[in-house]
Amino acid sequence: MQSLLRIIGDISDWIWGIPMLVILVGGGIFLTIKLGFFQFTHFGYIMKQTFGKMFSKKTEGEGTITPFQAVTSALASTIGAANIVGVAVAIAMGGPGAIFWMWVTALVGSASKFSEVVLGIKYREVNKEGHYVGGPMYYIEKGLGWKFLSTLFALFLMLEIVPSTMVQSNSVVGSAKTLGIPPVVSGIILMIIVGLVVVGGIKRIGSVTEYFVPFMALFNIIGSLIVIFFNIEALPEAIASIFKYAFIPAAPIGGFAGATIASAARNGIARGVYSNEAGMGTAPIAHSAATIDHPVRQGFWGIFEVVFDTIIGCTITALVVLTSGLWKTIEASEAASIPAAAFSNVLGYVGSIIVTLSLLMFATATIITIIYYGEKQAEYLFGLKFSRFMRYVYLASIFIGAIGGLKVLWQFLDILLAMIVIPNMICVVLLSNEVKELLQDFFSNKELVNK
Fold this sequence. Notes:
Elements: H1 2-15, H2 18-34, H3 38-41, H4 43-50, H5 67-78, H6 81-94, H7 97-122, E1 125-126, E2 132-133, H8 136-144, H9 147-177, H10 183-198, H11 201-230, H12 235-244, H13 261-276, H14 283-287, H15 295-324, H16 338-347, H17 349-382, H18 384-402, H19 407-410, H20 413-430, H21 432-443, H22 446-449
Antiparallel strand pairs: 1-2
């Protein structure tokens, strides 16, 4: 068994090394060029349409939930441990320059997420409950006629949600244990809370996430800004180091072993991809339920996600880590502890509680959304009744993961994830002409543009 697990681990490490980075980053670069660098040339307009209309209740077009509920549902999946722990690990392994490459990946990857969302809206359908459903499984089948590949995508994602839910549940339990809550108790409570939300479908998920996601994000951001303020004298050097060490090697300092330019780029790119999920095919499943008048308008929210998650969220965590100076003294193997230590240095025990509660909320929100993703795959493959069955399988996996059961399944998580990323990115690239046509159609219509 150990030999098998080692082989699985080696395969996973290889896939999520250069091959996956080439597919995701290379695909993002291709789409950026194909779409005329529009995420840069129209950045101000895109932010006006998203940040500027964040809390607007006015919607036009057809759909099941509001555009903002769709984006908060998707953000519930992307805002997670990668925004806190992942950033610290990237700096510990690649130095401050890793953050620069994380930014580059986010800006390029925003074209991928935009394209996914646009295609999700274009090829969505209305199910038997009268709700809009969509995602890669629909645009792979209807856009390219590849039913076999769309079936594989849905099957792999449906299966991937089981170990993913277990891992997330286990991280919630780990955070809850620091507050003195036993794993069995926190597992049961989490299962009940998630169950009450997901049983209401995308409408209830959207209603919950539109308040919960902004709250949990602001909770973490405000705490982070307080820590940065107390270390404000180190802020100029921290910002300068991000740009400096993106292009020159970072020398060893204390517990920091040093990093090459290649290491900074590799770790920054990898953590950026994991953080915002651009190209992974999950976000369009949530966005496809949005009430919207044109696919491109909802696509703007995909870019908003990347900006909010990586450019803002990950950068703030990076500045907490860099201004604290702890990345220089704590060994790379203990990098996950840096954010909590940085908060504790400034706020004492309260700081540890803030990080713990942030991780707990992030993981809980992620579970809620990914269960919905899994249900939609089951519905696509076998119908509504089977999707209900899978809902309870996922809820059961929350408790199993909480008590550390079936850990052998966790080893397959990254491989299953790769099996959905690869076909999704290939198909998004192949359908890029349709995305470009829709983009041109939107900006050629002054009535749409001026709304």
